[in-house]
Every structure is written in structure tokens, then in C-alpha cells.
Amino acid sequence: MKYSFKNDYSEGAHPRILDALTKHNLTQQSGYGLDEYSLQAAKFIMEKFDAPNAAVHLVSGGTQANLTVISAFLRPHESVVAAHIGHIFTNESGAIEATGHKIHSVQTIDGKLRPADIQNVMNEHQNIPHQLKQRLVYISNSTETGTIYSKQELQELYEFCKSKNLILFMDGARLGHALTAETNDVTFAEVAKFTDAFYLGGTKNGALIGEAIIINNPALQDEFEFHLKQKGALLAKGRLLGIQFQELMRNNLYFELADHANRQAMKIKAAFSEIGCDFLSETFTNQIFPVLNAKQIELLSENFDFYIWKKINNEKSAIRLITSWATTDETVAGFINEIKKLK
Amino acid sequence: MKYSFKNDYSEGAHPRILDALTKHNLTQQSGYGLDEYSLQAAKFIMEKFDAPNAAVHLVSGGTQANLTVISAFLRPHESVVAAHIGHIFTNESGAIEATGHKIHSVQTIDGKLRPADIQNVMNEHQNIPHQLKQRLVYISNSTETGTIYSKQELQELYEFCKSKNLILFMDGARLGHALTAETNDVTFAEVAKFTDAFYLGGTKNGALIGEAIIINNPALQDEFEFHLKQKGALLAKGRLLGIQFQELMRNNLYFELADHANRQAMKIKAAFSEIGCDFLSETFTNQIFPVLNAKQIELLSENFDFYIWKKINNEKSAIRLITSWATTDETVAGFINEIKKLK
Amino acid sequence: MKYSFKNDYSEGAHPRILDALTKHNLTQQSGYGLDEYSLQAAKFIMEKFDAPNAAVHLVSGGTQANLTVISAFLRPHESVVAAHIGHIFTNESGAIEATGHKIHSVQTIDGKLRPADIQNVMNEHQNIPHQLKQRLVYISNSTETGTIYSKQELQELYEFCKSKNLILFMDGARLGHALTAETNDVTFAEVAKFTDAFYLGGTKNGALIGEAIIINNPALQDEFEFHLKQKGALLAKGRLLGIQFQELMRNNLYFELADHANRQAMKIKAAFSEIGCDFLSETFTNQIFPVLNAKQIELLSENFDFYIWKKINNEKSAIRLITSWATTDETVAGFINEIKKLK
Amino acid sequence: MKYSFKNDYSEGAHPRILDALTKHNLTQQSGYGLDEYSLQAAKFIMEKFDAPNAAVHLVSGGTQANLTVISAFLRPHESVVAAHIGHIFTNESGAIEATGHKIHSVQTIDGKLRPADIQNVMNEHQNIPHQLKQRLVYISNSTETGTIYSKQELQELYEFCKSKNLILFMDGARLGHALTAETNDVTFAEVAKFTDAFYLGGTKNGALIGEAIIINNPALQDEFEFHLKQKGALLAKGRLLGIQFQELMRNNLYFELADHANRQAMKIKAAFSEIGCDFLSETFTNQIFPVLNAKQIELLSENFDFYIWKKINNEKSAIRLITSWATTDETVAGFINEIKKLK
After folding, report:
1. Whole-angstrom Cα distance, residue C39 to residue C234?
2. Which domain holds residue B74?
3. Is D72 an interface residue toward B (CB < 8 Å)?
4. Rounded distance, CA D64 to CA D241, Å?
5. Cβ separation of C24 and D12 shorter than 8 Å?
6. Distance (Å) from the alpha carbon of D88 to chain A's nearest alpha carbon
7. How does strand D304-305 pair with strand D3-4?
8. Half-sphere exposure (CA, 13 Å, Cβ side) for D254?
9. Cβ of B22 under 8 Å from any chain A Cβ?
10. Known InterPro entries for this protein (chains A, B, C, D) (predicted)?
11. Which of B191, B225, B253 is the last residue of a domain?
């Protein structure tokens, strides 16, 4: 069977997670997120992000995290601003709109929102009350094209949001990959400092499932559990999420896994560069988008699976390659061998 | 630490599930429910319930199953009829109403809905269009008080629903316990035959998490995946659910576990009966509700945890005891010893 | 054609309203509630209710008022408490639930909610976050059975609500009738003082259409216009509502019309009393519910239309009679003649 | 006071409407749209549009019409396609999203949607079920920039929609102006033939308020009254709407009024053309968008009110002028005098 670079959720969980599940299996625990593992996981996360007053909630998926957070934070007349390629705008089957809120989309060069983008949306919505009040800014880090926010970009965005009474919410389905990228200059503490809330994705970084929602802004923490329950996000066996995040955060495993995924991607990227290949976007995380001709794509497809992402011209298309915590050195070496043949 | 009879989701998963997760851990699979385990689990379920044309979808929790199913099946002006103690009416924090639908509640003796109950609701809602159109009947089996539907009851309810153009949906969070109760006379095939849709609960019967939604009525199957995605119920790593249900359905494990839980409860029930104890309701599943005086409750509480469920009078209250697949013979024997002392 | 006592919205508008519409017809005005008539109407209302800091919004109907107010005031996990016969619970086709909020209903003797009723609902919803947070109490004055709140009842209810962080909202579709009832002891100022918001109904008291929403609690006034627009309640030609309420509030016309309707009902009530008739409820507003036998109902039906409201026993039923601003002395005299024949 | 060309809802109603309201004022009628005027108005409309099997419903405003129709027609996972300047996308404060549905917007040259626009949206939403199912196409005629659909354009759009299982819904807030434009070639019958539903606006064409929803497609007519009630759109005194539309449709008054408005606009347009003025868009309805320099705008503003619509460059802006049934020849002559001075 071909090895798949289609995504970072093709395998199960890191073995330490399975071990921990087995170890704690028969210990009785309280339900609904009050188990001791979930509480410990929350502590680890608060320490890591230097956010002692944060509220941490574990849920099973990213769309669930997004829709629960956004609908809990907004009143009915408040809307969301997101990049046009933002996951909530294009890939969640109207999950946010189904809770009653419009998303204003902004075309961006690299998937990242900047203050001017948001200001433009606000400028176009001055005809009150016929037009909506923008209230929440949604960003992804890393973005859907693999790019990351610099410290300056994040800080400027956050300060802009505060000056406009906007909530800044970061989708961190691949936050580990962003924070361990070689070009990253955002510290863990700054993620918490420069957002009102964010989530830390487990599904795409070594967990069976699970995302940890971190609400930094105390004004937004109140009564969040009701929303979790109402949206079907409160697991009776929260222990499953607790055990996983406890292991992922213990001894930095989560970030080691993300770093591993990034390094594998960078090795592949280098191989494509060596043969003179262009990329759709310049990324330093676990997603890369080399531009290849049809013949090259065909050759690579013989032994590997991946998505053809975007047609560039009649000859060439960008493909998407995603590495993960589970991508081995052997696999990468084998793939690089194939790349070398493309020249 | 005290042993807890508070619920049936205090432990992890049956060891065969953990083994299977470990065994398949590094096999790459498609995401979003298209992994081979989910497909195999669906086959097993369809075979078991003799429902070759059913659509099977695996989700992570019961509230999620309920809200996704109900909102997918109804148009905005259609409402739900449920028992007053129905889980969706009292214990899901308005999850159904949050999708826009009213639930009409009916007081029942034993948690079970009967045709006359539904007819009464319909009779009271004749002032069209000022009053809503009832369209879906929600029942739980076993019910929230541990009772079960007989074949005749289920069939009559289903036939009534068909005659009134009502959808019959069964919450099967504890369906295994219902179907393996010693008084049960409903076959697996009849569950599928006499409902439009139901779900089979894993969380309360040996899985880490997971509920299997089975849609029998072909008219209701269409485009259900969109609703799963929109409600945050479509897991990227659907394999986690697939592997679990594959194991649970293989060689009948699921029903063996439920049967085990029922038997443990029946032993405890017998012990209470022997000391002359009354029960809040006559149950044959894994929930029992003995009525005790304050002194008896205090004594039992010394070494065991449980909920005081309902005050009966100034002297007595019913407690709730729930057994599970993980309740051992030793635990039960120890508890029975304590019961004997209460006389 | 038979005269109808079925409701108080069978005719058009008081002639002074039609005159004013004609008089101002060609004067150009701003749209969306910013016309000078709406502003003047708001002033009149604020003066009448001694509520100088209230926010007043005119909308076209009662269901619209209820759903816009309630959905604007609540967060997604907050619910409503109402009497079982409350208009929003039984006669608005799920309008409130369609905005995502559950209504907890309470059985009452006379359609009026009391603190103990609400406390009971709160007591039954302590299992947080599995159960909802009650946040808004909905009452009608006069109620759906024609009864009214005394000053003491209203004050106690309001103080209870404040002590529990509950919003008190009064549906005033027939508030004029309540406040002009001979048994009423609530002043205009007390209506505003002892509610967070209420509305004053025009549709059932002499307007073509229209209800005036008055938000007393400043914390609830913010950005309400967005909600009006979003729910389709903001009329481009708000002038239609403004002119009507300006006329209704000018020189107390609104209350004179309600008083007239009440007086007509009281004359009819006296006639039924004289022949020894019982009533379903003791009312002093424009709704009366005499209990008659089948023969009597048949006789009265020959020349008059009304609803048979409730079967009392095999012989008798209560009928509902509603008078209005347009019910003439001649009509009442004719009807009383018929009543006398029933003895 | 300055005369305002800001919109077509600045005045009250055509005098024949006020006369009819007065004439029928004390006639008792059934409520909720069952009055004889509403029934007659429906008949007139069905005759005019040659749509004997249509269902006609009268509501008070355009946003209300849009949100009630769209939410009634769609299931939760179905979305809407609209022009970027479509009223529902930009000017209804998220009314459609508040009912749970996403609107995909399309940039257009002239405010009109074409099959290719919709096909593009569908092409970009092939990743099922992560992306939504497009189900309803929303168009306005005349559009928000005053342009109109030709017969060929409408027919092609409708046929495309049918081939793709899409519902075609026309917002006719200014449908009268479209159908009486000198360049219009769409017959009344073709409006009904080439849409699944549309509405005919009264508010902007001589009524006090009111829009008539016409549902041509029988598959979409079912149980629509529930939705009207649930969304607060069902007026107790439906007679107000019935009387107005009865008068508007009797003897073609509605279309005479629209034609009058168009003619006044065309006279003004000709005057601007004569002085060599450009227009933002070429319109033949009651909206015109002449492009003027700052000095010209200042001069015109001395005696007339209008919106500055869009900045064209540093020197010039387009203004928006709207005429109505109430715009007199004298006003137009006076305004043309001012235009002549601008040369």
C-alpha cells in the first residue's frame, strides 16, 4: 500500500498515550471533565502557556471547538471576521452559521489576517443596524496554507482587536507545528497573552482525538460548561481526553511530536528545492506545497499518496504534502529518493 | 477509595478495545468515518440488527447523537414529543431547543411513552398554525429509570407513529442493557423494524467513547453526513470509533458486557429484596432504585458511592445504583455483605 | 351577519388613527423608526409610564415583540420560565425555541406566575451544566385568561427576580385592559418600575397593528436595533407605527379604549351573573368565560359568534367572550337581551 | 424643508389605500390572513401573474419575507447563493444567518446573477460533506443598483437552477419598477413561470407597509403558515395587508405607481445626460446613480436630499436618487432646473 502524505490524522496515537490509557483503564473517575487526568492536563497547559488564570476545556474535535467557542462568546447580532481560506469559512459545512452568526471573509495573500483586513470589513459595515457588528476575529496558526504568525504580527493583531473591542480567537489545530517551526518567534506565553482564547489541537499531533480550548480572557470564561453540554461537546468519559493531554503535555511530548513532523517536512522541502522546484507558499511547518508538472506528479504518485491542491497553469499544479508525528525517517528517505528522480 | 455505583462511565474501556487500538495504531486510514474499521463496524451492526439497508454513523457522545439526528430530521416548525424524564428534555442543557425545536414533555409512570400520551399532545395542538406540528417521538430504551419497552409496547408505538406521520427515534445509550434484560422480549431485528432510527451506546457499555447511530428509514438517510460535520460530530480520526465498535460487535462482546452489568444489578436487587426493601421502579437492567431510610443510606455510604435519587417521605429516599461491564463479582459480593447488615 | 365576540382584533383602527394617517400622509419622514411620529410616541410613552430612561421600539406584532426581546436578552444557555398557558409557550408556534431557547412551563391556577413557581423550576435545575440556567421570567398582564396582577404580586415577583438575577418581561398585548380594570391597583409608573421590559399592545386595542416595546433596564437596551433588524421587525415605514402610537398615547386615548372594552365586558358579565351563571375565572378585563349548558350555548350562537373555550363536564362548557374598543352599546344591549332569555 | 430623493418609503400610502382602510374599518373580519380582503388580494395577484396554483401570503416587510421564505425552504445543511450587493447579504443584519444558513456571495458587474456565477460557487464546494450544499439562489429584480433581468436572463437562470436542483427566489421589493421599466421584456406570467417563489413589494410602491409572497412551486407551499407564525410574520390584523394589496392590485394601481416612479427617474436621468453626466450603472427603473463632482453635489444638496453612494475618484462620486409613486411633476421640474445649472 502507498504511504499517504494526505494528512496528519491517518494513524492512531503516540504509544505513550496508549500506554497511559491502559495503565489508568480501571481506575474509577468522575465524569464530564472532572476526572483527575483532565484537571492535571489543564494544569500542565496553564503552566506551559504561563496562563495561571486561564480556563481549560477538552473537547473531541476542531469544528466542535470552533462552534462552541464562537457561539458562546457572541450575542446574536455579532459576527466573525476570518480569512477566506479560514477553516470555519470553507470547511466546516456552515457550522458557525448554523449557530446563527455570519462570517465575513477576507482575501489574503498567505492565509494570515492583518489589522487592515479587519478595518476594511468594519469600514464596509457602518450602516447600523442594517449591517452587523463585528465582534470576533478568527485566525489559524499555523494557517490552512502552513504559514505562521510572527510575534509582531500577532501582537499587532491583538492590540488592534483590543482597541476595537474585538475578541481574538486562534484555531490551533496545528498550533504545535506553528510554535516549533524554525522561523517561529512567538513564545508559549505570548500565545496566551496575545489572544482571548485559543485551542491546542491533539487530533493532528499524536492524540487519538482531542482539542484543548484555553480561554485566557476571564470575561469570556463564565458558564462555558453549559455551552459545551448544549453543543454535545462534554464527554461523559472526559478521562479519555484528560489522559491524552496529560501525556502530551508531560515532558513536552506534544511539542516534540510537532517538531518531528516539521523536520520531516523540511527535509522533503529541501529535496524539492534542490531539484529547483517552486512552492505555492513558503512554509516552515508540516505542510508543504511544491509545484510540479503532470509527469512529476504521476511519478511521485506511484508509491505515495497526496492531494493535488491547486492548478497553477496548463502544465503545473501545486501538490500538498503533510507530515506527522508518525512519519518515519525511512519513509522520508524513500520519498526523497523519488524526488531526486524527478529532476 | 470508595467504589462508585454512581454511573456506568467511571472506568475506561474493555481490554479488547485497548488491544485493538494498539494493534491497528500505525496503520494509515482514511479520515472522517471512511476508515475500514468504521465500515466493518457498520456491517457488523447491520447484520446484528438485520438491517441491511440501514445507514450507520459513529459519533462521540449521546447528546451529540440526539441533537444531530433530531435537527437533521426536522423542518423548523416540527416538534418533538418526549417523556418528562427524557434525557433530551431534562439533562442536555437545551441542546435540542438550541437547534430550534420545541420538546413537548409528557408525565409518565415509568418513563415509557405510550400512543395515548402522544395523542394527547396532538389533541392539545390543533390550533394550527399557532401551535406546532409534532413530528418526532423520542424514547429511551432502557429508560432513564431503568425500565424497558416490551415488544408489544414498541410495536404499538411504532404503528401509531406511522399512522400519524411521526418519526420514532430511540435513544439507546443503554440499549444493550435493555436487550439483554431477563424480561426483554424485543429482538435485535425488531429494534430496527420498529423504529425509524436509534442509536447504540458505547460510552456506557465498555467503549472509551462512542455511539452508533442507525437510520433504518431510507427517507431519513439522505445527506446525513453534512449534519454530522455541521454539528461537530464528524471525527477526523473516525478510526477511534470504528475500532471500538468493530470490537464491541465482534463475537457479541457488546451484549455480553451489558448482560454482565444487568446480572450484577440483579444480584444486588435480590439482596435488597431479601431484606424487605421496596424499589422506586421495577427494573431488570443495570439501574436499580432501592428505597432506604436515612440510617441505611448512611451505613451503605461508608464504603460505597451512589446518588440519593429521590426523597420518598420524611424517613425514606430512593437511591440510584448503576452497575457496569467493569463491576466485578468481588465488588458485588462486598456490597451485598453491607446490604445484609441493613436489615 | 353575526356579531363576533371571538377576539379584539376583528375591526380596523380607531378613527383618530385613520385621520392622523391621512393628515400626515405626504409628509416625508426618515425610515426605520427615526420618523418624528415614532420619536414623539416614544416620548408620550416614557412620560405616561414615568420612565424617562426607557428605550422604546415600535414593532408590528406580539410574537415578533416576544421573540425579538427574548432572543436579544439571552445568551444561548439561558432559558425562560412561563405559565403553561403563556402565549409564548402555547400559541406562537415555537417562536422562542426557534431562536434557540427553552421555555420551562409552570401550571398555574389563574395564569399568573408567583415566586414559588419560579423557585420550583430553579430547584429542579440544579444539575449544572446538564440543566439550563433560568434567566428570564415571562408574564402576561392581563393574562391569557383575563386575570391581572395586583401591585403586591407584581412587586413581589420583581423583587424575587432581582434577588435571583432574573429578567422580568411582561407581555402587554392587553396591558391597557389590565391597567384600566376596576380591580387594578398597579400604576403606570409601577409597571415600568417592576419590570425590566414590557410591551404595550396596539393590535388588540385600537391600532391597525403595532406593539410598543419598552426596555426599562438600561443594561438591556444596548444595540437592540440590530436585533429588530435581524428578526425582520424594523419597518422601513416606521411612520405607520409612530403615527398610531402618537395618537393612542395623546390625551390618553389608548386607556380610554381599553376602559371602554372592559366596561362592555363587565356589563355582559353582570348579565350572566344575574341569571346565576358561573365563570371559569373571575376576570375584570375584556375577556370573560361564562359557563353554560349546551342549550344555552346554542341559543346564544344564533346571533353571536364566540369560542367554546373549555369543556367543564358532560353538560357544561365555558365560552370565551372578548369585547373591544369597537364593541358598541347597542351590540352589548342586544347581547344582554339574549342572555336574559337563557334563564 | 428639502425634498428627499433618499428612498421610496418616505411618504405614507396612496390615497386609495387610505380610503379603503376607512371604508372597511368597522367591518368585522377573521384574523391571521383569513379576512376577505387578503383572500381577494391573493386572487388578484394570482390572476395578474397567471399563477392559479400559487400560494400567496402577505407580510409586513422585506427582511421578514426573505428570512421566512428562505428558512422555510431550506434544511439545515443547505445554503444560499446571492450577489455580493444582494440585500440579504449586506443589509439585513445577518437575518438569514440567524436562521442558520450561510450565504455565498458573488461579485457581479451589475448586481445580476448569471448561471456561471452559481456554477463557480458549486465548483468551489465539492468537498462534501465538509462544504455546504447550495440549494437556493436569491436574486433581486430590480436589483440593488436599479438594473433589471431580461426575459432571456431570467429564463436561463431558472433553467439552470432546475437542472441543478436549486430553488430560484426573487426579492421583488421593487418588482413593480422592474416590470414597468421601458426596457423590460419580462411578462407578469413569466415572473411566476421562471421563479419558484418571489415577493411583490408594497412598502416601496405606495403601501403603508406590506409585501406579498408568492410561492409558485407547489412542492414549497406546504405548511408555510407555521413558518409565518414562528417568525412573527403572521399579523392578527392581516386585514391591514389585505386591504392594501386589494387596492394596489385592483385596476392595476400597483403598476401605475411603479411606472410613475420610473418615468420621474427617467426625466431626471435625461436631464443629467443632457449636461454630459455619466452614471454608475445604466438603469431604467426608479433608481439612478449620476456621477458628479464635489461642487455639483454641493449645489444640488442645497435644496434636495440624497445619498452620496460611491466615491469614483478624487474628484467625483456617484449619488443615488430614488423616485417614488409620490414624486410629483413639480418636484421633478424643480430638480431638473437645478441640474441644468450644474453644467
Report:
1. 14
2. 15-253
3. yes
4. 14
5. yes
6. 10
7. parallel
8. 29
9. yes
10. ArAA_b-elim_lyase/Thr_aldolase, PyrdxlP-dep_Trfase, PyrdxlP-dep_Trfase_major, PyrdxlP-dep_Trfase_small
11. B253
Which residues in chain B touch residue A64, judged by CB atoms under 8 angstroms apart?
A: 232-233
Nearest CA in chain A to B89: A230
Provide the grid cell at D114. Answer: 448569471
Decide if A129 and C99 are in contact by the 8 Å CB cutoff. Answer: no
Alpha-carbon torsion (B63, B64, B70, B75), positive or negative: positive
Residues 213-232 of C with CB under 8 A from A: 223, 225-230
Q: Which residues of A touch C225 (CB under 8 A)?
A: 128-129
DSSP character at residue C183: T
Whether residues A158 and A34 share a domain: the answer is: yes
Same domain, A210 and A96: yes
DSSP secondary structure letter of residue C218: G
Q: Identify the closest residue of chain B to C90 by CA–CA distance.
A: B131
Residues in chain B within 8 Å Cβ distance of C76: 94, 98
Predicted local distance difference test score (pLDDT) of residue D26: 96
Q: Is D187 on the interface with B (CB under 8 A)?
A: no
Residues D111 and D22 in one domain: yes
Stretch 316-335 of chain A: residues touching chain B, C-beta under 8 Å: 326
Q: Report phi then psi at A282, rounded to 5.
A: -85, 105
pLDDT tens per residue, range B227-253: 999 999 999 999 999 999 999 999 999
Q: Which residues of A touch D92 (CB under 8 A)?
A: 130
Q: Say what the ipTM of the complex is.
A: 0.96
D180 and D123 assigned to the same domain: yes
Which CATH number fits the domain that encloses residue D46?
Answer: 3.40.640.10
Share of chain D above pLDDT 90, in %: 99
- Say whether A189 sits in a helix, a strand or coil: helix
Residues C236 and C136 in one domain: yes
pLDDT tens digits for range B184-200 = 999 999 999 999 999 99
Neighbouring-strand partners of residue B199: B213
Tell me if B117 sits within 8 A of C122, measured CB to CB. no
The answer to whether the CB atoms of C227 and A76 lie below 8 A apart is yes
Asked if residues B139 and B87 have their Cβ atoms less than 8 Å apart, the reply is no
Q: Which of B6, B93, B105 best tests the C interface by mutation, with the highest count of C CBs <10 A?
A: B93
H-only helix segments in chain A: 15-23, 36-48, 62-73, 87-90, 115-123, 151-163, 175-179, 188-193, 224-230, 239-249, 253-274, 294-301, 329-340
| pLDDT at res. B1 | 79
Chain A residues whose CB is inside 8 A of the C229 CB are 129-130
Q: Which of residues 263-282 of A touch B (CB under 8 A)?
A: none
- CA-nearest of C113, C131, C109 to C122 is C131
Write down which residue in A253, A273, A308 finishes a domain.
A253
Report the alpha-carbon distance of residue C283 to residue C181 in Å, rounded.
9
Q: How many CB atoms lie within 10 A of CB A270?
A: 11
Is B90 an interface residue toward C (CB < 8 Å)? yes
Which residues on D lie below 8 Å from B226 (Cβ)? 76-77, 128-129, 132-133
Chains in contact with C, counting 3 or more C-beta pairs less than 8 Å apart as contact: A, B, D
**What's phi and psi for A6, nearest 5 deg?**
-70, -35
pTM: 0.97
In this complex, the residue of B79, B92, B98 whose CB is nearest that of residue C94 is B79
CA distances from C298 to A101, C268, C292, C303 (A): 54, 17, 10, 10
Same domain, D49 and D189: yes
Are residue A192 and residue A294 in the same domain, yes or no?
Answer: no
* Main-chain dihedrals φ then ψ at residue B130, nearest 5 degrees: -75, -20
Report whether B65 contacts B73 (CB < 8 A).
Answer: no
Looking at the structure, tell me whether residues B113 and B224 fall in a common domain.
Answer: yes
**Residue B304's CATH number:** 3.90.1150.10
Closest C-alpha among D139, D147, D249, D248 to residue D194 = D139
Q: Average pLDDT over chain A, rounded to whole? A: 97
pLDDT given for residue B138 in this prediction: 98
